[in-house]
């Protein structure tokens, strides 16, 4: 079965002026947004954390909202690419295999971009930037649900669970890592991806009577 979906929403790119401190500014901004909350963090707070003047920060970025947008893009861009690739009906692959692959790779993306993903999961749509990020999250949910439905149609998954619910639960399991995963913890990303796949797909697999 060929699975298709609408194109991923294209994020509006927000680029700061060139400068060797731009990455450090974004990284520190994300840490502050997660610690204090985006609305409660001012550019003055960011300047103090970095040991810079606000004028120095404005040499690299135009606003706090630009920093938020770049952080949310960091969380979403790679995951969008992973889901987009999984939606391609490649010869010799099943929807079920692609669904398992996208679940595993989602763990890798979250681990690699954990601060930005943490911030993404906290946005509530209070600005145009946040609304755009939420739209992209909905796109991901919808595409994953299409892949679940394709796996059901090919007979790989049980068909008595709504695909949209399965999509939310799969992403929910992966997203829960932001609450407890630590790079120096006792579980490495490969083990976590293996266990999530085992728990999710052994329970979803279709069993013959």
From TrEMBL:
This is TetR/AcrR family transcriptional regulator. Keywords: DNA-binding, Transcription, Transcription regulation. It comes from Streptosporangium longisporum. The lineage of its organism: Bacteria, Bacillati, Actinomycetota, Actinomycetes, Streptosporangiales. Residues 42-61 bind DNA. Gene3D superfamilies: Homeodomain-like, Tetracycline Repressor, domain 2. Residues 19-79 form the HTH tetR-type domain. It holds the Pfam family TetR_C_24. Coiled coil: none annotated. It comes from the Bacteria. PANTHER family: HTH-TYPE TRANSCRIPTIONAL REGULATOR BETI, HTH-TYPE TRANSCRIPTIONAL REGULATOR RUTR.
């Amino acid at each position: 079965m060929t699975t298709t979906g609408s194109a991923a929403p294209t994020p509006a790119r927000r680029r700061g002026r060139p400068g060797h401190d731009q990455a450090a500014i974004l990284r520190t901004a994300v840490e502050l947004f997660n610690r204090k909350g985006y609305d409660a963090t001012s550019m003055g707070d960011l300047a103090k954390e970095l040991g810079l003047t606000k004028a120095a920060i404005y040499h690299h970025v135009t606003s706090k909202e630009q920093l938020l947008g770049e952080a949310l893009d960091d969380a979403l861009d790679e995951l969008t690419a992973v889901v987009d690739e999984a939606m391609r009906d490649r010869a010799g692959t099943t929807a079920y295999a692609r669904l398992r692959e996208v679940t595993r790779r989602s763990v890798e993306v979250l681990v690699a971009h954990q601060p930005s993903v943490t911030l993404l999961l906290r946005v509530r749509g209070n600005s145009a930037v946040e609304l755009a990020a939420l739209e992209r999250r909905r796109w991901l949910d919808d595409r994953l649900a299409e892949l679940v439905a394709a796996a059901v149609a090919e007979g790989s998954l049980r068909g008595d669970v709504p695909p949209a619910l399965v999509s939310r639960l799969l992403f929910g399991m992966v997203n829960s890592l932001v609450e407890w995963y630590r790079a120096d913890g006792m579980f490495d990303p490969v083990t976590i991806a293996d266990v999530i796949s085992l728990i999710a797909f052994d329970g979803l697999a279709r069993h013959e009577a």
